[in-house]
C-alpha cells in the first residue's frame, strides 16, 4: 500500500517506517524549535496526514468547541447578510471570517478587488440560493484575489475546495447539499500559512481530503464522493476555468489515490459500504448505472493507468460478486445491468488481461455444473426459462396440468421475448469483449471448449445432473453461438471453403478421441493424423473455423440432449395419466373404503408430479422451440451440410461415390452428421412451418449422397433418421409435406429408389438391443416414400430397372418377412382386443379385482391396442407396396424368382385364410378404423395382387403347392364376399373369377402329378423342406446336397451354411450334376409308367 502512495504522489513523500520514525522525532521537538519546524515543514505535514489515517474521530473537546464556534459564526453571518441587504448595488454573498471583527470582506469575483462593507442589522434579507453540485466558474480577471479570513487563500483555491470537493473551512448557514464544514482542519492548516496566505498545494489538499473522508456525511458514500469530485474536476477542465492546472492535476491524482484506498482498505474511512457490501464491490451500483452519480469510462481509464500493479485485489472481488448475483438471478430478474458491468470493465485491456487469468474464468478442476455456476461467462449465460432453479415454473406454470392453450401461449410469448433480449445482450457483450484484443478470442474459445467438453455428460443415457449444466445454460450457449455465426453463414454458403476440417481432426482445440467416427476406428484416425494422410491444420486458424466447430459441438450437448429429455418426460407423463385414469375410473369403489384415504393421497401425488413434469416441459419448450432460434439453427446446420459435402465429395464425383471413403471424411466424429439429422427430424416432424422460407435443396443433396453410398457411414441409425426426415416431405392427409424436394435434383431421381430398397435390407441388423422391432418403424418410412415415388413418372422408370439389381431380391424377401410377421401379430392382437371388448361390456367385470389387478388388465389391453395399431399400419404399407409393384409386368419377373415365389404365394394364402377363413369373426372389433384395420380394403388389395401375379403360370402352381393354407373353398368364399359387398367393378370381378377357375384346374393337375410320382426316394428329397429337388447343389463346407431354391431362400436372410454355420454365398454353391441326372431319369421313368 505504501508503494501505491508513492506511485500516486510521484515521489518520496512516504518513504516507509524509517521516515515515519524520523518524523516522530521531529514532531517531538516542534514546541521547542520553531526554526526546525519551518525547515522540516514537509515532514511535519506528512506526519499529520499519517496520524489522520490512524485516528479518524475528533476528540469530544474539539467537537464541543467546534460546535460552539460554528453556532457563533452562524449568528454573525446572519447579521452580516442583513447588513448587506441594505447596501444597494452590492449582491455578493457575505462571508464572516471570524467572530472578533465588525466588518467582513465581500467578493464579487475571485480576482476582482473587494470593498469592506459595514454590517447593518435594520432589515432582514433573503439569502441568495447556492447551487450544490455544478461548479460555477470564477469570472476571468487579471488577478486572483485573496479571501480575507482565518484561512486566507485565493478565490480559485476556495473554488476548488468548495465547488469541487464540497468542503468549507468557514461556517456557512446555508451549506449546499452534500457539502461539509470541517472546523477540525482549520488549526492544522493555519500552520501552513506563509506570507499572509495559504497555498493549496498537494500536501495541504491531501490533509483536507483525508479529513473529509474520515468524517461521516449522511447519504454520501466515500466512493460516490470521490467519483463526483473527479467528474467536477473534469467539468472544470472542459470549461477552461481560471484555475491553476497543477491544482487540478494534483486533485485528480489524490482522488484516484484515495479511490483505490477506499476500495482496498475500506476500514480506513467512513461511509465505505454499499448494498453490495464493502471493499471493491462498492463499485457495483455505479458500474450497473443504479446511481445518479456517473462512473465514467474516463475515470476508470485514468484509474487503471495509475493502478495497474494492484488490479487483482480490486477487480477479482467484483467479478466474483457478479457470479454470485447472477447465480441467483432468475429469467424475469434484471440481468442487463450486470451484463453492463462485464462489458464496461473488459473493454479496458488491463482488465481483460487480468480477468482471463482468474480462477473464476476457466478452472481445469471445474465440472460441467461448475462451469455454469462458478465461471464468469457461465454465470452470464445461466439466466433461462429452462434453468434448474424452477423460478419460471413458479411464475408461469405453477398449475401446468390445468392450464389452457391460450394461457400457455401467452406465457410462451412473454418468456421468448425476455429470452431473445438476453441472447441479443450476450451477443453484444461477447462482440465487445472479442474486439478488445486477440488474446480475448483465445480466452473465450478456451472457455467454450472446456464448457462443452465438461458437459458431454449430458449425452449419456443416465445423466448425472450434479455434474452437468442445466438445459437453459446449454440452450443459451447454442442460441448465442448461432447468432455469432450469422456473420459467415450466408444463403449461398460462400465461406464454407474457409472452414479447415483438419483443425477438428487434429484435436488442437477439441478432444474427439472418445468420439465414434463415421467410417473409421479411433486408432485408424489417429494413425492418419500421425502419418500425414490427414494433413496438419493451418498454422493460424481463422476465427470462422474456431467458431464453426465450437458451435457444432455446443449443439451436440445442447439441442439433442434436451430433446431426448423431453421425450423421456413425455413417457413419464403418459404413465402418470394412465395411473390417474385407473384410479379415477375405480374411485366409486374405493372412496368410502378404509383404503380410500391412501388412494386419494396417491391421486394428489400423481397430480403434483404431473404439474411438475408439465411445468418442466413448458419451460424447455418455450426456449427450445422458439421459431427464430429454430430458423437460425437450421441455417447454420445447412451451412454444415455444405461443409460435409465439400469433405465427402470435393471433386463433385457422380454418385455413387467410390470406395473407400476419403480419410478426412471417414475420421470425422459421428456427431457432425448426427446433430444435423436429429435437428431436422424433430423440427420437420413438429415445427415444419419454421422452415417455410429456408431452402432445403442442399439438405436433400446431402441426404442422397449418404444414401447412395451407405458404406461411407457405419451407423445405421443415422441413415434411418435420414429416411425418416425424407418421409416427412411426402404429402399425406395430415400434412402437405414438401414434395418438391423429392425432385429437386437429378441425383435424387437417379438413385433414390434403389437407395431406399437397399436401406430396407440393411436396416435388418442395426446392432441395437431392440433392433428386431426398430426395423419395422424405419421400413415403414421407406415404404411411404416408395409408394409416393411410384406415382411420379421419372421415378417409376427407375422402379422397372431394379429387378436387375441383386438388392431387389433381398428387398422383396425382407418385404415378405415383415408382412408375414406384422400382419400375423396384428391380427392376433386384434383377437385379444375383441375378447377384452366383450369383457369390458360387463359393468361388473372388475368386481373381484383389486385396483392393481384392474390397472394391470387395462394396461395390457392398451399395450395390445398400440401393438395392433402399429403393426396394422406397417402391414398396410407393405401390402400397398406389393400391390403397386405387382402392377408392372417388368417388375413381376423379379417376384417370380425360384427363391421368392413360394414364399410370396404362402404369405398370400395365409392372409386370405385369416380374413375370410372360419376364424375371421374373431377380428370383428368395434371401431376397427381406430386400429387402422379395414378388412374390406385389405381383401380387395389381396385379391388384386393375386390377379396381378396370376398372369404368370408359375405363381398359380406355387399357390396350390402351399399345403398349409391353400384351399379352393377359401377362394370361392372370397369371390362371394367380393360380389356381395361390391368391392370390385364387373371387370375386376370377372378377372378374379377366372383366377379361381385356373387355380382349381392347376390344383387338380398338381394333385394328379403327386399321385403319379408316388413316394419320392430320400436321396432326391430336399433335406429341409422334404420336397423333390429340381436343381440340386452341394454346399462346399458341409457337403450337403440341397435344392438350389431352398438354399438361395435361406441365404437371402443368413449367409451361412445351415448345417454347420460356416460362411456361404450363392457363388460358392456347387452344381450336383450327378444327382440332377438321377432325378431326371427317375422322373422320366415315372412318366413312362
Automatic annotation (TrEMBL):
Bias (Polar residues) ranges: 119-134
GO MF annotation, one: ubiquitin-ubiquitin ligase activity
PROSITE patterns: U_BOX
Listed Acidic residues bias regions: 13-22
GO cellular component, one term: cytoplasm
Pfam families referenced in this protein's UniProt entry, alphabetically: U-box, Ufd2P_core
Keywords for the protein's UniProt record, in alphabetical order: Acetylation, Cytoplasm, Nucleus, Phosphoprotein, Transferase, Ubl conjugation pathway
Enzyme class (EC, first level): transferase
PANTHER family per UniProt: UBIQUITIN CONJUGATION FACTOR E4 B (PTHR13931:SF2), UBIQUITINATION FACTOR E4 (PTHR13931)
Family indicated by similarity: Belongs to the ubiquitin conjugation factor E4 family.
Protein name: Ubiquitin conjugation factor E4 B
